[in-house]
């Protein structure tokens, strides 16, 4: 999650971490082109993590 957060900030997005329904989520917005993202990090039973990314670029 730290990698995604750092990349978002470096490319001009705001970024906020929260916990929703027991999963870590990271979301943000970039005003100059109205782009946004929402990432869900879900723990797997085998110890891994599933990552779902929803993103748009103001369209």
Question: How does this model look, in words?
Answer:
The chain has 59 residues and is an alpha+beta fold. The chain has one domain. The protein is 15% helix and 53% strand. It is built from one helix and four strands, in the order H-E-E-E-E. The chain has one helix spanning 2-10; strands spanning 16-20, 23-30, 35-43, 49-57. It has a four-stranded antiparallel β-sheet with strand order 1-2-3-4, with helices on one face. A hairpin with a 2-residue loop joins strand 1 and strand 2 (23-30). The longest helix is centred in the first third of the chain and has 9 residues, at 2-10. The protein is elongated and about 40 Å long. The mean pLDDT is 94.
* Share of helix, binned: 10-25%
Total of helices: 1
In terms of per-residue confidence, which ranges show pLDDT below 50 for 5 or more consecutive residues? Answer: none
Overall body shape: elongated
Spatial gap, N to C terminus = 26 Å
Count of discrete structural domains: 1
**Alpha-beta content class:** alpha+beta
Tell me the major beta sheet: 4 strands, antiparallel
- Percent range for β-strand residues: over 45%
Strand arrangement, largest sheet?
Answer: 1-2-3-4
- Average pLDDT confidence is 94
C-alpha Rg, in Å?
12 Å
| SSE pattern | HEEEE
Q: Total strand count, please?
A: 4
């Amino acid at each position: 999650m730290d990698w995604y957060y750092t990349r978002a900030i470096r490319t001009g997005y705001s970024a906020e971490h929260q916990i929703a329904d027991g999963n870590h989520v990271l979301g943000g917005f970039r005003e100059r082109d109205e782009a946004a993202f929402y990432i869900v990090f879900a723990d797997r039973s085998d110890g891994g993590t599933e990552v779902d990314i929803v993103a748009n670029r103001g369209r």
